[in-house]
Amino acid sequence: MDIMVKYSSDCLNSDAERMRRMLKHINEVFSSKSGVITEEYKKEFEKTKTETNLERCKIMCKMLLGIDLALLVVDVLFKSIFTNKGNAVVNLYYGHIISLIFICLWLIVMKVNEKNNNHVRDNLMCYVIINIVIYWAVFMALNSLNLSGQISAYFMGILGVSICVYLTPLESYSILLTSFIIFICGLGLMVSENTILISHIINSFIVIIVSRIASRASYYNFLKNFMNKKTILESKNELEATNLRLREYEKLRTDFFANISHELRTPVNVIYSAEQMIDVNLKSENFEQEKLNKYLKMIKQNSYRLIRLINNLIDISKIDATVFEIKRVNCDIVSTVENITMSVSDYIENRNILLIFDTEVEEKVIACDPDKIERIVLNLLSNAIKFTPKDGEIFVKLYLKENQVCISVKDTGIGISEEMRELIFDRFIQVDKSISRSREGSGIGLSLVKSLVELHGGSVQVSSVLGQGSEFIFSLPDVLIEDTVKDNYFSNLSDQRVDRINIEFSDIYD
Ligand code: ADP
């Protein structure tokens, strides 16, 4: 239960934190007055801007094409009416033809290169057409000055470009100012009367300022929209990831309860059935002591199984909650491991399994928690015994390697397949999980072994050949603490040791 509480609180804490960050981020983006492009999106923003501008330029071009054609028809039809007013119509006529040629050329180039996207080229093409539009407007305005004294074509041109196309501040300043200077020069050449000239200059300057404001507003609006979309997308992805993790936690929780219920129910069922059989046996006339002993043994063994399971659960929940403590003392690891190994020899006598202990060194004192070392070795030995058939062999070997003390528990048992080797240290992983499996277990043992070894600052590995056997090697750092040596730590604990072995070996049935 503790483990689940830990998982859930971990999950909730980290996800709540994530949500808080996400909301803050969204808030920041939505409340910011001027959009700010972050480094990671700079390239993408430039690309989107160019693509949108290009689309708009194409529309602008087509509109201009239509206007040009219409004006050409007007030029041809009404040439005689306007001829009296100087040579303005003739200029317009040629001007329209030239701009028609430019626009058609531009559209053809864009059509030809439609399929191969090139950001730099597309950007350049946008500038080209924007300039064509603006100088077309300048030309139109200067000409209509002769005809009607109006310069509104220039105003429409720069305002239209500023609103339709997204220009960075630098682009918009340079385009607007250059066109303004050229237009003023044109005006200077064409208008002789100073008051009219000054009024045209003031009007154009106001329109330039308005265009600049419009351009800025549309550019930052576009940038803000872009960033908003990105934030929403990021938040959506984060939400999806959180959702996925929550599902995983939920699955973990369900699996945990399913596993635990099964592991608890099995020994309880056995104990309950054995108690009923004892009851029947006691009540029956031909009472059999042998049967009674058998049922009592079943009760004892399954009680040990329950104790082992509960002990393991308490330990892994403590490890998860990082409150599990190891009490290190300086002790002789050689005699510790040898004692543990030898004390289980009685349990395997009737299985005809040969148990051999071997060491490279006579004595090696390191800082470790002997209780935990006992649990590690007993866990590995109980697995070795469980998965090794009769007449098999189990070797326990201790050797030194690069500032590490290595302890290997090797068996000639059924072995572990390659894909399972990576998983067996995870909780509740059992190679054979079927109800009809021949060996009992909860799938917690190796995950506990791994945690205990890691708490000592060591590591555990497995190598195995399916059908030939497995070797588990755990290594402990060769370090000492400031403490007196306790070399015969287990010598007075033989009764407790028997109990502990009974508990660790409770999954093994004769
Ligand atoms: P269990 O309580 O089921 O033994 P463990 O975590 O100790 O749980 O082991 C997980 C699984 O690893 C076992 O169910 C078994 O399939 C496999 N395993 C562990 N040790 C051995 C071994 N020595 N030989 C073959 N398989 C092993």
In total, the number of strands is: 7
Structural class: alpha+beta
Question: What does the average pLDDT come to?
Answer: 84
Number of helices: 15
Shape: rod-shaped
Assembly of the depicted chains: single chain
Detail the poorly predicted runs.
1-8
Helix content: 55-70%
Instruction: Tell me the fraction of residues in β-strands, as a range.
Output: 5-15%
Spatial strand order of the main sheet: 2-4-5-7-6
Count of discrete domains: 3
Ligand names: adenosine-5'-diphosphate
Distance between the termini: 32 Å
Q: For the report, how would you describe the main beta sheet?
A: 5 strands, mixed
Work out the radius of gyration. 43 Å
The SSE order reads HHHHHHHHHEHHEEHEEHHEEH
Short account of what is shown:
The protein has 510 residues and is an alpha+beta fold. The chain contains 15 helices and 7 strands. It has helices at 2-31, 42-77, 79-82, 88-112, 119-147, 152-164, 169-190, 194-283, 289-320, 333-343, 345-348, 370-386, 418-421, 445-455, 494-504; strands spanning 329-332, 354-359, 365-368, 393-401, 404-411, 459-465, 469-477.
What attributes does this structure have?
single chain, 510 residues, alpha+beta, Heat Shock Protein 90, 5-stranded mixed β-sheet, 15 helices, rod-shaped, binds adenosine-5'-diphosphate
